[in-house]
Amino acid sequence: MHATAVVIGEAGILIRGASGSGKSALALSLLALARERGASARLVGDDWIELEAVAGRLIARGKPAMAGRIEHRGAGVGLALSEPAAVLRLIVDLIQGPAPRMPEASIAEIAGINLPGLVFDASSAASERARSIMARLIDDDDAFVTSVRISLE
């Protein structure tokens, strides 16, 4: 699949969009923001991602030959810390046309697996998109922690 993937903590994020839509720029912004906040952040792959459904989870893998390499538009290919694979928890779609002013939550279905999604248009900066995605991950983690605490009580 023509996409880019990163892993923040244990959350894999797949970024889909047309060529030139800002997938690599968003990935770089996410990696930088996560590290600023003290989270583990790694590139899974840039430009081409293989997806595999395993036991109800969607696994993303980058091309081994491109491990740790990501495009810096206008500057060439740079290096990033990388992981060979990640379990996806969020799908981000970058679209060309207008999108709602606030990031639109959605459900994305890939290989029969439904995952939460966000949709952004080209009008927002990669850093703004990264902040929205990080907020979504934090909200999802808080909901998960709350549900675990309730079930243990």
Shape: globular
* Uncertain spans: 142-153
Supply the CATH class: Alpha Beta
CATH homologous superfamily heading:
P-loop containing nucleotide triphosphate hydrolases
Count all strands and give the number.
10
Helix proportion? 25-40%
What fraction strand?
35-45%
The first-to-last residue Cα distance is: 43 Å
Task: Compute the CA-based radius of gyration.
Answer: 15 Å
CATH architectural arrangement: 3-Layer(aba) Sandwich
Mean pLDDT figure: 84
Number of domains: 1
CATH fold description = Rossmann fold
Summarize the biggest pleated sheet: 8 strands, mixed
Q: Write the element-wise H/E pattern from the N-terminal end onward.
A: EEHEEEEEEEEH
Q: Structural class given helices, strands, pairing?
A: alpha+beta
In DSSP terms (H or I, runs of 4 or more residues), the helix count works out at 2
Describe this structure in words.
This protein has 153 residues and is of the alpha+beta class. It has a single domain (3-152), classed as P-loop containing nucleotide triphosphate hydrolases (Rossmann fold), CATH 3.40.50.300. Helix content is 27%, strand content 42%. The chain contains 2 helices and 10 strands. It has helices spanning 23-36, 126-152, and strands at residues 3-8, 11-17, 41-45, 49-54, 57-62, 69-72, 76-79, 85-95, 104-110, 113-121. The strands form 2 sheets. Strands 1, 2, 3, 4, 5, 8, 9 and 10 form an 8-stranded mixed beta sheet that branches. A two-stranded antiparallel sheet has the order 6-7. Strand 1 (3-8) and strand 2 (11-17) form a beta hairpin. Helix 1 (23-36) crosses helix 2 (126-152). The protein is globular, with a radius of gyration of 15 Å. The termini are far apart. Residues 142-153 have low confidence and may be disordered.
